[in-house]
């Protein structure tokens, strides 16, 4: 499978490159600076990938990269690191442009494309509701396999705290939050392993992960 990776110079993206290669995938990295990416990766890794320069906020550039690289899948980790509550982030603009580029590439090629967008726990629903966890609160583990679930966080711990009026759900989120800390390497391997197969049970889902050893 051929994969277009956006955000390869970031914390997660730089770990996704070797993870994707390890799982036997062909990798094209779409970055603003090819020189910066080569400086981050050892030659043994950078020699195995194709690098295309472009702006992830330009849907036409994303579409062109997909079509010219004949990619079967796209992984977008671009703009995630800057998405702190106190700073300005381009993530919404990047998400919109990348999604549009993928949709247009699918229409032109008449072939579906697998997509992974990286985000935080706040995009998942609070268990038992249709409200996002981010509605209730803003959001160093050892390496290990992750347990995943669609739509809501996996292995969620409920407690009597949730019954407290107004404060119950925010308190429950706070108690659970630390349990969902995972390493960048774990997430990179999870995504790469999923892309090894042309079929995925996670297609069309918002996916939450947890380290079950915690």
Automatic annotation (TrEMBL):
InterPro entries the record matches: NAD(P)-bd_dom, NAD(P)-bd_dom_sf, Polyketide_Oxido-like
Query: What Gene3D superfamilies has UniProt attached to this entry?
Result: NAD(P)-binding Rossmann-like Domain
- Coiled-coil ranges (or none): none
Q: Where are the transmembrane segments?
A: none
GO molecular function annotation:
oxidoreductase activity, acting on the CH-NH group of donors, NAD or NADP as acceptor
Q: Which residues form the signal peptide?
A: none
Domain (NAD(P)-binding) spans 7-124
> What PANTHER family does the record tag this protein with?
FLAVIN REDUCTASE (NADPH), NAD(P)-BINDING DOMAIN-CONTAINING PROTEIN
According to UniProt, the name of this protein is NAD(P)-binding domain-containing protein
Source species: Hortaea werneckii (Black yeast)
For this protein's source organism, the top of the classification is: Eukaryota, Fungi, Dikarya, Ascomycota, Pezizomycotina
């Amino acid at each position: 499978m051929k994969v277009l990776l956006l955000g390869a110079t970031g914390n997660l993206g730089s770990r996704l490159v070797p993870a994707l290669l390890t799982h036997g995938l062909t990798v094209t990295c779409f970055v603003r600076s090819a020189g910066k990416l080569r400086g981050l990766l050892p030659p043994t890794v950078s020699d195995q990938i194709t690098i295309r320069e472009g702006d992830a906020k330009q849907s036409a550039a994303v579409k062109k990269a997909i079509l010219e690289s004949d990619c079967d899948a796209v992984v977008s980790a671009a703009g995630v690191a800057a998405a702190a509550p106190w700073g300005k982030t381009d993530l919404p603009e990047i998400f919109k442009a990348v999604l549009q580029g993928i949709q247009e590439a699918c229409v032109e090629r008449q072939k579906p494309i697998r997509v992974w967008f990286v985000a935080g726990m706040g995009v998942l629903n609070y268990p038992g509701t249709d409200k996002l966890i981010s509605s209730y609160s803003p959001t160093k583990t050892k390496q290990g396999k992750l347990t995943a679930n669609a739509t809501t966080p996996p292995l969620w711990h409920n407690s009597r705290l949730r019954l407290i009026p107004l404060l119950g759900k925010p308190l429950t989120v706070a108690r659970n939050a630390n349990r969902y800390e995972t390493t960048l390497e774990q997430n990179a391997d999870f995504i790469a392993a999923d892309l090894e197969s042309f079929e995925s049970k996670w297609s069309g889902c918002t996916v939450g992960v947890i380290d079950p050893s915690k």
